[in-house]
Amino acid sequence: MLITPLDRTLPIYIELLGWNEWQDEFIRPHGYHCYHWLQTTGGEGKFECEGKTIILGPNMGILLPPNVPHRYSTTSYPWSTWYITFNGNIASILVSSLGLSTCTAISWDPLSRLSGMHRRSRNLARDNFKFNSMDGSAFVYRFLMELKRSGQVDNQRSFSHHTACVIPLFRYLEENYPDTSLGLDRLAEYAGISPQRLNYLFRMATGMSPYQYLIHLRIQKAKELLVNEKNLTVKAIALKVGFLDASHFVSTFRKNESITPLNYRELN
């Protein structure tokens, strides 16, 4: 893609986007100057970096940071690939914040949305005058989000799998959050799994324990009531969303929102 000085001011931008029906051997002793994604669309290839040899088969790819020495070659003819290189002010921040694995094989389910990204990019890029730098920036952002959602490393379950596992519990909490007796053991019993497994799934899907998620949900419901039910007192709202007393509610609200419930109501 033609990169202009204005393009380089974008938070993230595509440098190259392409397909190789017959992938040639590449040896880059000094790596590539941008982030580099390479995935197999047919056949099989061998990728070498950081002392590791990785076989990239169908529905597999690898993400390389800038300047990482590597080489790759065909092991099953023809090896067909799709690649995308990108950079920008937030490229490294985005990759890091999403926790995307680099220099290792990433795989995905053939039915996931990630499996069709390369085909959609081909359709977009057919008319390069319409597929401009901003479209490219949006595309690479969506691609990285899908990589986070559907990518699997070392046979571990994907983020989307963990989220799907806890969706029934999200619904259960939505219906029962005011219940002061709601706890980890009851949630685990409802889900039919151990408390330890439940805690693991919640942390993988939300970054929080089930209890922390419940508290956040109660605070969110309290914020809605503070804004929409002006006639309710803080004590009434505390009891309505599952807190045993107003003082605990106020201290928890301040800890989470850095403001008291009354001050929050006044601001809204």
Automatic annotation (TrEMBL):
Alphabetized GO MF terms: DNA-binding transcription factor activity; sequence-specific DNA binding
Domain of life, source organism: Bacteria
InterPro entries: AraC-bd (IPR003313), Homeodomain-like_sf (IPR009057), HTH-like (IPR037923), HTH_AraC (IPR018060), HTH_AraC-typ_CS (IPR018062)
Keyword Transcription: yes
Pfam families found in the cross-reference section: AraC_binding, HTH_18
Tagged with keyword Transmembrane: no
SMART domains: HTH_ARAC (SM00342)
Keywords in alphabetical order: DNA-binding, Transcription, Transcription regulation
PROSITE patterns cross-referenced by the UniProt entry: HTH_ARAC_FAMILY_1, HTH_ARAC_FAMILY_2
Annotated ranges, domain HTH araC/xylS-type: 167-267
PANTHER family associated with the record: ARAC-FAMILY TRANSCRIPTIONAL REGULATOR, HTH-TYPE TRANSCRIPTIONAL ACTIVATOR RHAS
Protein name: HTH araC/xylS-type domain-containing protein
Protein source organism: Paenibacillus oryzisoli
